[in-house]
Design goal:
Blueprint (H helix, E strand, L loop, with lengths): L8 H7 L7 E5 H14 L7 E5 L6 H8 L4 E4 L2 H9 L7 E4 L5 H9 L3 E4 L4 H9 L6 E5 L6 E2 L5 E2 L10 H13 L4 E5 L11 H20 L2 E6 L17 H16 L8 E4 L3 H4 L3 E12 L3 E5 L8 H5 L5 E3 L9 E6 L8 E8 L7 E4 L20 E5 L5 E5 L4 H5 L4 H12 L1
Parallel strand pairs: 1-18, 2-3, 2-11, 3-4, 4-5, 5-6, 6-9, 9-10, 10-11, 13-15
Antiparallel strand pairs: 1-12, 7-8, 12-13, 12-17, 14-17, 15-16, 18-19
Helix pairs in contact: 2-9, 5-6, 8-9
The structure holds pyridoxal-5'-phosphate.
The site of pyridoxal-5'-phosphate has 17 residues, from helix 10.
Length: 427
């Protein structure tokens, strides 16, 4: 599918007057379109709820948009829990799916009334040592089936090599122990494959979880109130990929529900999801300016963003499509490495990429940074975090997170010792 930016060069030229590059910009219209499509796809399930994976885009202004669709938030850290609290989410709208969890984070999740989703059976006594013997009425467990998870189109992942979740035997024992702690309603969760660009993933996962829940329901006589399909629904980062159709995915889960859960007398189970990437990735872009060109053994375009603003290419070799704004219709007849300023040779947004001729001053639009983009930022080489902007449906632009400053960078040093010098730089 042709990848088209949600802003034009003209619009970016207007925006940079107030907000210098680099920045991440998010498209409210696209976010709302997808949120509504997700709601519609699962409307057949009365209790359905998406718990937006906060780690994808931990910004309260984005979370506020999600709340218009009655979505909750999937959290795995203190800061993510606090973000959910400050935007006004109640406990039923907070899923705490953490691992290697510090005690204070369980204490906070419990105080907020969040739904606690346990990653391991040993966390039951650990939790009891923090909150006491009386557990919340509703709790959940994360399942890891081990082995290889494979779909018919060849997409696979390796749960047997992943640190998350419990074995089936542990899971059954965990539910029995939780029941003894007074838990009345249970959830079952699994995340078996990441960024699946296929409509098959959720239905296949749902089938496995539904069957397992039916077996456990029968064996232990416990009530499952929800099954959580977690994240993993992907987006087409590459132009040759077909996007997922969430309506088809929702219908696929519906079929499994009718085949497995309804006959087991479990037709009241709510379906939960924890999508991050699918909700946000295509509706964010990193906008950066070409500031250097270099001709040595290869052709390099140096830009004012770097891997500290978008880590995925450096970390996973991930592909992010690049559009040179204003040159959408020019031939891609130049081969470039598009690189940032880090003193690391993997700081490359694109390698051997065919693009139109780039001139200094051109704006490059790096696609699909709306999830796991800004949020994976870091400060290596003393690089500062860029701003996040929200393009509203009416065309106005709001800065929803300012760019980091030197003062932020110095904030964790004892500033009294360096304050005078630092002030010179702020002028
Ligand atoms: C990262 C994560 C998600 C979101 O995954 P996406 O691939 O962004 O949809 C959901 N749940 C858990 C537990 C996660 O760790």
């Amino acid at each position: 599918m042709k990848k088209t930016p949600f802003v034009t060069r003209d619009k970016i030229e207007e925006i940079v007057k107030d907000h210098p590059t680099p920045f991440h910009i998010y498209d409210e219209a696209g976010i709302r379109r997808t949120a509504q499509a997700v709601k519609d796809a699962f409307a057949w399930n009365e209790g359905f709820r998406e718990y937006f994976a906060v780690k994808a885009t931990p910004n309260p202004y984005i979370m506020k948009i999600m709340q218009d669709y009655d979505f909750g938030f999937d959290c795995s850290s203190e800061a993510e829990l606090v973000l959910s609290d400050v935007v006004g989410a109640d406990g039923a709208h907070i899923m705490f799916t953490s691992n290697e969890t510090p005690a204070r984070e369980y204490a906070l999740a419990h105080r907020l009334g969040a739904i606690i989703n346990l990653d391991d059976i040993t966390h039951i006594p650990f939790l009891a040592s923090i909150i006491g013997d009386e557990f919340p009425e509703t709790m959940s467990c994360r399942y890891n089936p081990g082995g290889i998870f494979q779909l018919s189109n060849g997409i696979m992942d390796n749960p047997g090599d992943s640190k998350y979740g419990m074995t089936k035997e542990q899971l059954i024992e965990a539910y029995a122990q939780m029941k003894a702690h007074g838990v009345k309603h249970f959830g079952l969760h699994a995340f078996l494959a990441s960024n699946t660009v296929t409509n098959e993933y959720y239905p296949e996962l749902a089938g496995q979880l539904f069957e397992l829940a039916a077996v456990i329901h029968k064996a232990l006589g416990i009530h499952f109130s929800f099954i959580n399909l977690s994240g993993g629904v992907g987006v087409p980062y590459r132009p040759d990929q077909e996007p997922n159709d969430i309506a088809v995915i929702g219908e696929g889960v519906h079929q499994k529900f009718d085949e497995i859960l309804v006959p087991a007398g479990m037709g009241d189970v709510a379906i939960y999801t924890e999508m991050g990437r699918f909700m946000m990735a295509p509706y964010g872009a990193l906008v950066t300016k070409a500031i250097h060109e270099k001709h040595i053994y290869k052709e390099y375009i140096g830009v004012d963003a770097c891997a500290a603003n978008l880590m995925r290419p450096a970390m996973y070799g991930a592909y992010h499509h690049v559009t040179v704004l204003g040159k959408e219709n020019e031939p891609c007849d130049h081969r470039y490495d598009v690189v940032g300023a880090l003193c690391e040779n993997n700081d490359k947004f694109a390698v051997d990429r065919m693009l139109p001729k780039i001139d200094k001053g051109d704006y490059l639009y790096i696609h699909d940074t709306g999830a796991h983009g800004s949020s994976m930022g870091y400060n290596y080489n003393g690089r500062l975090w860029s701003a996040e902007l929200l393009l509203h449906t009416d065309g106005s632009v709001q800065e929803i997170r300012r760019a980091e400053t030197l003062r932020d960078y110095f904030a964790t040093f004892d500033q009294t010792e360096f304050a005078d010098k630092l002030m010179d730089y702020e002028k």
